[in-house]
Amino acid sequence: MSHSGELLSALLDGELTGEERSAVTAHLRECAECRAEAEGLAGARAAVRSLPALELPPGLLDFPPEVPDALEARRRRRRAPFAWAAAAVVAGVVGVAAVTGGDARPIDLGSVADQHTARVVVDPAIVMVRAPMGAP
Amino acid sequence: MSNGDGVPSWEEVARRYGRKIYTFAYRLTGNPDDAADLVQEVLLRVRRGLDAYTPGSFEGWLWRITRNAFLDDVRRKRRRPTVALPEIDRGEAGSAPPPEDVLAAVRLGEDVQQALLDLPYDFREAVVLCDVVGLSYEEIADAAGVPIGTVRSRIHRGRSMLRERLS
Q1: Is residue B15 less than 8 Å (CB to CB) from chain A?
Q2: Dihedral sign, CA of A65, A69, A72, A77?
Q3: Tens of pLDDT along B73-126?
Q4: CA A25, A31, A34, A38 torsion: positive or negative?
Q5: CB-based contact, B150 to chain A, within 8 Å
Q6: Where does residue B55 rank: exposed (0-12), middle (13-18), buried (19+ CB within 10 A)?
Q7: Nearest Cα residue to B90 out of B76, B77, B103
Q8: Which of A108, B30, B152, B154 is the most exposed place for a label (fewest CB within 10 A)?
Q9: Using CB atoms, which residue from B43, B137, B166 is nearest to A44?
Q10: Cα B142 from chain centroid?
């Protein structure tokens, strides 16, 4: 059998089939070179395994139930300009739908901010949306 | 939890795996801030994905998510090159040498960490998932999306390089 190579690492990890393990251990009995390599690999493996366990930074996992939502919200805030634009488009669609709906019902566009947004976005097309325009 | 019928809750995943995910990222980057960010990002992705998760290899699923989140983060930072991985101060010049007996263990840890950082990414990842996280070759193959033979080879080559650097 030629030198064991990567089978040596797998041997250390218990990741060889029975057949492979028998072959490698038989080879190791006869090959000083592979024994030295296995020893070096075992040292490297032990060095990484002996790295100290790390503590999480304090508070990282102290989640009250709403924290996942807060994380989502924070992620969304990073895209705030787009969120604002998206809200404007939605409001605009509502406005246009009201305009093109045909039966001239006044609609409530919600908050003052939304009303303002809707007005900016759909202004050229506004014909029938009455309620928000004169609202205080 | 990985073998029951039930899908773990988001909180269980956070409690049980938060520290492992943090350690994984820290050993791959040497950077505590990146590691903390990764924990939060992974837990978000887990939370979104839990509904679609069908019980199977939970570890494989979790570490696939973790790995993808990590690589996305690396790619994002590469596009903004002002964020650099910090060099570990190895205390070779300038300051007074620390007491050998007190800090020998700490420095050994730093040497091993630095040697890990010097490995090509694929080797580093395989070694960290095996020796730090404690996954089997099969779980690593699942997480990285490569055959088991590739995992075996990466771990071996990674350890061989570590052995040279640490000797």
Answers
A1: yes
A2: negative
A3: 888 877 765 444 555 554 444 455 556 655 666 667 889 999 999 999 999 999
A4: positive
A5: no
A6: middle
A7: B103
A8: A108
A9: B166
A10: 15
The type of residue at B15 is R
pLDDT the model gives residue B78 = 73
Which pLDDT score, from 0 to 100, does residue B2 have?
42
- Over residues A47-104, the pLDDT tens digits come to 999 998 888 888 887 765 565 666 666 666 655 544 444 444 444 544 444 444 444 4
Give A118 to chain B, closest Cα distance, Å.
32
Least confident of A85-89, B16-20, B50-54, B150-154: A85-89
Q: How close does chain B come to A38, measured CA to CA in Å?
A: 10
Looking at chain B, which residue has its C-alpha nearest residue A69? Answer: B44
Give the ranges where B80-147 is alpha helix by DSSP (H).
100-118, 121-127, 137-144
Give the start-to-end residue ranges of the domains of chain A: 6-53+62-122
In eight-state DSSP terms, residue B96 is: P
Q: Supply A75's token pair.
A: 């992620």
Is there a contact between A56 and B39 if contact means CB atoms under 8 Å apart?
Answer: yes
Contacts with B153 from chain A: Cβ below 8 Å = 6
CB A130 within 8 A of CB A106: yes
Q: Report the residue of B21, B152, B161 to disrupt the A interface, i.e. the one with the largest count of A CBs within 10 Å.
A: B152
* ipTM higher than the 0.95 cut: no
- A49 to chain B: which residues are within 8 Å by CB? 131-132
Select from A54, A62, A67 the residue whose CB has the most chain B CBs within 10 Å, as the one to mutate to test that interface. Answer: A54
